[in-house]
Amino acid sequence: MAYGTARRAAPLWLELAVICLLGAGLSVAMNMAREEPLPWVADFAALDRREALRRGLETIDAHGAITMLGKPGVVFIDARSAEEFFLGHVSGAKHLPQEAMYGDLDAAAAALGLSNEDRLVVYCGNLLCDKSKELAEALRTAGYPYVTVVTDGLDGWLAVGGPTEGGA
Amino acid sequence: MRILGILARMALGLVFLAAAWDKIVDPAAFAKILRNYQILPDMLVYGVALVLPWIEVVTGMCLLTGFVARGAGLCASLMMGVFLAAMAWAVHKGISTQCGCFTTKADDAISAATFIRDGSIMVLALLVTVESFVRARRA
After folding, report:
1. CA nearest B25 in A: which residue?
2. Tens digit of pLDDT for each residue in A15-58?
3. Which residues does chain B have within 8 Å of residue A15's beta carbon, measured at their own beta carbons?
4. CA–CA separation, A133 vs A121, rounded Å?
5. Distance, in angstroms, between B85 CA and closest chain A CA?
6. In angstroms, rounded to a whole number, what is the distance separating the alpha carbons of residues A23 and A16?
7. Where do the structural domains in chain B lie, given as residue ranges?
8. pLDDT single digits (tens) B80-121
């Protein structure tokens, strides 16, 4: 910097404000420019329900699912892999991996002693996984009419303090 | 030494631009990952998923060009601190989720590697921030 012409740096808060405001402004502009702008506030519970309804499924979150544990005729189904099931699962849950839907699902369900009068509560790992929805859809098609999906999966179950078993 | 500082700043800028790309292309997928961290209330998830990548872009551009570099360095350091804390939170709570750091695809689950990668970026961001503060003071 030349003598006598030193430029005072902008205050730090102003620099941060410029960055945040530019970022926010660009995000608004680019979202408006999308063919289908995303809503700024989403009701995820409603989105989950809509997705499940589209598949013809009933849904429940872990809070609701915990009240069903141990009730007669209610069977929890773990749709994850054998390794994940082994590491820990809902107490009393039966293991029916989602991959079973690509084979003889009837035989796999019968081997677990499932009845088509049971209320099957299917879960997988977390909010992101689709295994529970896919398996639930396949079970309904296979003649099990009472199928419910736990939307937030085992992570939700753990978050509400649901009992588990298995694991090291 | 000054050249090194500039190169480090520009490298950090490129990292932030690269990190923002996937999230801008598919903000709904990024929102899904954010939600799975179970930190933000649901009503804030889409807003954060839409704004955060653009703040990364502006930060990256500022670091690349040197415009408001001090603020950009600090912003990068703060963001990396928040990202690392969020990952630590997820691990602590036993939440198995995608990192959501560089991609929204399902091949970037939180692991030791993601901690090392993000930790290294944080160190770089801190170095760039300190260097820009020192240079601003000397000017």
Report:
1. A34
2. 999 999 999 999 999 999 988 888 898 777 777 777 777 777 88
3. 68, 70-72, 74
4. 11
5. 19
6. 11
7. 2-132
8. 999 999 999 988 877 767 888 998 876 778 899 999 999 999
Question: Residues in chain B whose beta carbon is closer than 8 A to a beta carbon of chain A?
Answer: 24, 27-28, 31-33, 35-36, 38, 42-43, 45-47, 49-59, 62, 68, 70-72, 74-75, 93-98, 106, 136, 139
A43 touches chain B (CB under 8 A): yes
Rounded distance between C-alpha atoms, residue A80 and residue A96, angstroms: 8
State the complex-level ipTM.
0.90
B12: phi > 0 → left, psi -120 to 50 → alpha, else beta; which? alpha
CA A8 – CA A15 distance, rounded (Å): 13
Chain B hits for A42, CB-CB cut-off 8 Å, are: 31, 42-43, 45-46
**pLDDT band, residue A59 (cuts 50/70/90):** confident
pLDDT tens digits along B124-136: 999 999 999 998 8
Query: Which of B52, B55, B70 lies at the smallest CB-CB distance from A12?
Result: B70
> Shortest CA distance to A64 belongs to which of A157, A135, A128?
A157
pLDDT, tens digit (0-9, with 9 covering 90-100), for B20-34: 999 999 998 899 889
Beta strand A164-165 with A89-90 is antiparallel
